[in-house]
Amino acid sequence: MSEIFQQKDPTFLSIELWQSQNNSLVAGFTTRLGGVSQSPFDTFNLGMHVNDQLQDVLANRNELGKSLRMPLSQWVAAEQIHGNQIHIVDKHDKGKGAQTFDSSIKKTDGLITREPGILCTAFFADCVPLYFFDPITSYIGIAHAGWRGTTNKIGARMVEQMQNLGVNPKNILVAIGPSISQEKYEVDETVINQIDELYRESVSIKHSDTKYLLDLKLLNKQILLDSGIKELNIEMTKHCTYTKQGLFFSHRRDQGKTGRMLGYIGLKQS
Q1: Cβ partners under 8 Å of residue 91, min gap 6
Q2: In what helix (H) or strand (E) does residue 112 lie, and over which residues does it extend?
């Protein structure tokens, strides 16, 4: 299977397959390249909550907005608390979290919309980005799935919310984005015990007496399959944020002192 996230620009990778199906759709994941932020946020940091200089983050965000032809006035960002709460975004949310962190949608890790002129965004540095697109109704969404959000089944909740909006799960396309790979994601029994026994064995490898290697991407895929998403409709990237140091920030590799990539999905106004 070919890589779903294609790098056509130094600063971001695009979901070209989806964008070719809908000319209004913009969907992708940024790299750490091409911005103005100083070390350890060098250079294209897009997160405001990591102690980077605010003017540098805004410069980086504005640059991306120009590249995507979706200015900050159309961005929507959530607070991201590693939960499973989801917000249905409408025109009244435009600009929330775009220029100040305090204006982000509170206590939320998933965003869904089908309104044009809105870019749903989420920030990452090892956690799993989940992208959703229904070509029939044009509903789109993005979710931030760290181990807590994953074990609390934010992916399943996104599907459920889209279903409540009239979407047939069998039509939903899902992309599982760049995140930490199993070989680099060591966790303890506290984390493993949060995973449903149904999935535990297939997504983890015992590494020592109390440590395991967890495949967070695969765990999300299993949960999505059990939520009614067709396997044919799930694309999973091979990109690892930890190992590709020149391309991505990694919270674990950089011991917490690092920037954030942006996952984004939106529909341009015609």
Answers
A1: 115, 117, 118
A2: strand 110-113
